[in-house]
Amino acid sequence: MQNDDIEPVYRVWGADNIAYGPVGLPSLVSWIKEERVTADAWVFLEAERSWQKAAKIPELKMFFQSQSAGAAVGGPEPRPASAASHGIKPGSLRRMKVFADMDDKHLESFLQYMEILKFKQFGDVVRKGEHGDAMFLVLEGELRARVIIEGKESILSTIQIGEFFGEISLLDHGPRSVDVVANEDSVLLKISTAAFEKLIAEAPALAAPFLYAVSRSIVSRVRTLTRRYEDSIHFARVAGTVR
User: Fold this and answer.
1) Are the beta carbons of 24 and 8 closer than 8 angstroms?
2) 200-223: string of b/e by CB count within 10 Å (b at 16+)?
3) How far from 241 is each of 53, 229, 232, 236, 238, CA to CA, in Å?
4) Structural domain containing residue 48
5) What is the CATH number of the domain that holds 180?
6) Average confidence score pLDDT of the chain
7) Strand ranges across the sheet with 164-165
8) Last-in-domain residue among 27, 48, 72
9) What pTM did the predictor assign?
10) Poorest-pLDDT segment among 3-12, 27-36, 153-162
11) Who's near 51: CB < 8 A, 6+ residues apart?
């Protein structure tokens, strides 16, 4: 039987596939208010030894209901030009690895340089061959990077919440190398090359940690591709000797 005097303990499954915690109820409520924990986030209850959606946990329901009520008061708002005017809070960005080390003040400033875009399921976000002029970060939903070879789709990767793509466009304005298509209704943050250049000119101290995080991601991807290439050569040679 659970002792009522013991504070409940929780763990939260993040968008980066890492469990955060253990934390008590006050800390978890704070994360909800900062939008670091959303209604559909998975939360582990130590007392029950089970995972549940945050909005389904009795002691958390009221916080998500109050958010929904607040959003409905004024009716739907027109789509704004910038992410900052859309009401996105710093906590939403901190779920993304590229922004994980920035404080709220820096994140609020960074939002001024970004736009928010919404795509329906199966919508094209970028198409192979078109001019690359922006980087995208996934706030909600899921996408896939693909190429069409001889009329058949080949999926290269799945892009999920907290991940980003198109970062090379901030450095090289060449053509897109793949298609990116929404697997489901998705909400993306966009930073154009023009906005990025403006960021560097106006706030270099803000651009530096962002560039560093993006660079680390690029290096990681290059290493992964190199390993895959080496493996493909190895398998090809093995296949050749078998024949």
Assistant:
1) yes
2) eeebeebbebbbebbeeeeeeeee
3) 52, 19, 14, 9, 5
4) 9-72
5) 2.60.120.10
6) 81
7) 115-119, 186-192, 134-140, 164-165
8) 72
9) 0.59
10) 3-12
11) 13, 42, 43, 44, 45
Q: 138 lies in a domain?
A: yes
Question: How far from 196 is each of 33, 150, 193, 201, 218, CA to CA, in Å?
Answer: 29, 37, 5, 9, 17
End position of a domain, from candidates 23, 48, 72: 72
φ, ψ of residue 128 in degrees (nearest 5): -55, 135
d(CA 172, CA 175): 9
H-helix segments, the chain = 25-33, 58-72, 90-94, 104-111, 193-202, 204-242
Domain identity same for 31 and 119: no
pLDDT grade for 77, boundaries at 50, 70 and 90 = very low
Structural domain count, the chain? 2
In this predicted structure, the answer to whether residue 184 has a pLDDT above a threshold of 50 is: yes
Q: What is the pLDDT of residues 3-23, one digit of tens each?
A: 444 567 899 887 656 788 888
Mean pLDDT (whole number) for 156-169: 91
Could you tell me the two tokens for 56? 């389904």
Residues 102 and 65 both lie in one domain: no
Same domain assignment for residues 97 and 52? no
For residues 115 and 198, state if they share a domain.
Answer: yes
Burial 72-108 (b: 16+ CB within 10 A, else e): eeeeeeeeeeebbebebbbbbbbbbbbbeebeeebbe
* Together in a domain, 166 and 46: no
Task: State pLDDT tens for residues 215-233.
Answer: 887 777 778 778 777 777 8
Query: Rounded CA gap, 34 and 23, in Å?
Result: 15
Q: Concatenate the DSSP letters of all residues of 144-166 into one string.
A: EEEEEETTEEEEEEEE-TT-EE-
